[in-house]
Amino acid sequence: MEKKKRRYFPDEFKRQAAERVETSGLSIMDVAAELGVHETQLRRWVRQFGTAGT
């Protein structure tokens, strides 16, 4: 069985994703589906890069 490769996302992508959650009025689930990332990962980015966390 082939080992799964980790996907890399640059910090700028993470920042923009977190900003989209905060400004679009969409849920984390909706934005995660749009971007093709898991909602748990997006939630981490919102905590890390979101305006509430700075």
From TrEMBL:
Pfam families: HTH_Tnp_1. GO terms for molecular function: DNA binding; transposase activity. GO terms for biological process: DNA transposition. Gene3D superfamilies: Homeodomain-like (1.10.10.60). This is Transposase. It comes from Salipiger bermudensis (strain DSM 26914 / JCM 13377 / KCTC 12554 / HTCC2601).
